[in-house]
Fold this protein.
Amino acid sequence: MAAVTNNHHVELHTFKDAEALSYAVAEWIAGIIGETLKKQDRFTIALSGGSTPERLHRILAAAPYKERIDWSKLHIFWGDERAVPFEDSRNNAKMAYDTLLNFVPVPAAQIHVMRTDITPEQSAAEYQKILHEYFGATGPSFDLVLLGMGDDGHTLSLFPGTAVVHEEKLWATSFFLKAQDMYRITLTRPIVNRAARIAFLTTGPKKAHALKEVLKGTYNPDMYPSQTIMPQAGELHWFVDEAAAAGLE
C-alpha cells in the first residue's frame, strides 16, 4: 500500500513475519535487477549490515535467484561499516561475504568494501573517490540502497544526536561513536537520497516505536535519523513485518 507520511510518498509493504518478508524482498530485488539491466549494463546496489539482511542474502544466494540474477553486472557497495577488522564478526562486509558474496559470481573488481585496514578517515576518503567514479554531481546515484533501522531510529551510521545526520557535502565520512566505543564509516544522506530506489527492511517488536515515529511522528531527525532518508526523485519502500508495524494502525 502507498502511504503519504511526513509529506513524502512512501510505499509500505507489510508481511506476516521476517521469513515472508525476506522472500518477498528477494523476488522484488530480482525483478528490479532484471528490468534495470534491460536498459543499462550495470546495477549498483548498496548493502546493509545488521541481522535482517542475512536471511535475504541466503535466499538470493540459492536457487532460483542464484541463477536468475546476472551477478556479473552487479556492482556492490555498503551503506556503512564498523571500523573493525574484516575477520571480526561485527564487520558488515564479512557478513555479506559469509551469506551472499562467497556464493555468487560477482567479479571481485566490482565489490567495493569499506576498508578497515587503513584509518577510518582514509577509508571514507577512498570510498568517496570510488563513488565519484561511478556517479556524477547530479542525477541518480545507486540503482538500489538497502537499509535497516535500529531500535533507536538510526540508519546507516546516522545515529541520534550525531553531527553526521546533517552532513550536506561529503558522500562518505567517518567518525567516532562514543556509545559504541568505535569508529564508523558511512554513506551520507546526500548521496543515498539520489538513489533510484531505497528500501528499508524492518522487523520485530523492538522496532515498532521507532517505525511509528519515523513514519507518522513530527520531523525530528536528531531523534530519528531515518526520517532524513527521502529520495529526491526515486522510490522509498518500507518492507516491515506485522510486529514492527504494530504501532501504525
